[in-house]
From TrEMBL:
UniProt-recorded name of the protein: 3-methyl-2-oxobutanoate hydroxymethyltransferase
Gene behind this protein: panB
Region (Disordered): 249-271
UniProt superkingdom: Bacteria
Record's GO cellular component terms: cytoplasm
Length: 271
């Protein structure tokens, strides 16, 4: 049986650190499942990791559902959560419920994640939770707002930290079951971990969080541009490239020493 949102909330109470990784297809889902992590996120970062876009903005709801179905075929134990993509929840509550509902009806996802805490977003979260759709919040660096906020560290001033703190409390109040805090000062994440009852899952938010999440491709060194807060555990892109080049070289070399039969040779029976 997969873990539930209650399991993750109990982990916080027990002081057990929550581990979370992203997946974008059946293959990466199998790696993430085998890692033994607690939460698998079909993150909209797949727009960049898997679809080659420069930001997360272009990925469609249709594509996210398609990728969540693929990941869902290989995920067994972790709680499976999908990102609601840009403009799937910002154009009215009814459309947001319909979009989020697709993940619960058409994929094995048990929850959705969305970014920000503007008043309209709060209304959406409230409605989703009352409809029975668990929601994970996401504050700090919110990539869907990259054209307003950039890719840099967020909430660096005391006043911005107080604003973010208030938003985090509001998200908990609206019923979010957990909160992702991305690229914010460690002191802010550490304080919120203590103040909130729901798990605070950090990414580039320092070590003192209830859990940590990373984009799996960044952790494995598969992406060309690494965020500053991730040290890849291996250089997978380099290793894969070297091995594939080696295979091509071997095939060409073998072909040269063992040429194909010349025209006019008798046919080989059975070929
Ligand atoms: O889309 C994603 O991969 C995310 C992580 C950065 C948490 O939201």
């Amino acid at each position: 049986m997969p873990l539930t949102i209650r399991d993750l909330q109990n982990y916080k109470r027990q002081g057990r650190i929550i581990t979370a990784l992203t997946a974008w297809d059946a293959l990466s889902g199998a790696w993430v499942d085998a890692s033994g992590c607690d939460l698998a996120l079909v993150g909209d970062s797949l727009a960049m990791v898997s679809l080659g876009h420069p930001t997360t903005l272009p990925v469609s709801l249709e594509a996210m559902v398609h990728h969540a179905q693929a990941v869902g075929r290989t995920i067994q134990r972790p709680l499976l959560v999908a990102d609601l993509p840009f403009l799937s929840y910002q154009c009215g509550t009814e459309r947001a419920v319909a979009a989020a509902g697709r993940f619960l009806k058409e994929t094995p996802c048990q929850a959705v994640k969305l970014e920000g805490a503007e008043p309209e977003t709060m209304a959406v979260i409230n409605r989703l939770v009352r409809t029975g759709i668990p929601v994970m919040g996401h504050l700090g660096l919110t990539p869907q707002s990259v054209h307003c906020l950039g890719w840099g560290r967020q909430a660096c001033s005391v006043s911005d930290q107080e604003r973010l703190r208030q938003k985090a409390l509001d998200l908990q109040q609206q019923g979010c079951f957990a909160l992702v805090l991305e690229h914010v000062p460690a002191v802010l994440a550490s304080g919120l971990r203590r103040e909130l009852e729901i798990p605070v899952i950090g990414i580039g938010a320092g070590p003192d969080c209830d859990g940590q999440i990373l984009v799996t491709a960044d952790l494995l060194g598969l992406t060309p541009s690494q965020p500053p807060f991730v040290k890849p555990r291996l250089q997978a892109a380099e290793i894969f490239k070297r091995e594939l080049q080696g295979w091509c070289h071997e095939q060409r070399h073998q072909g040269q020493t063992d040429p194909p039969p010349k025209e006019g040779n008798p046919p080989i029976p059975g070929c």
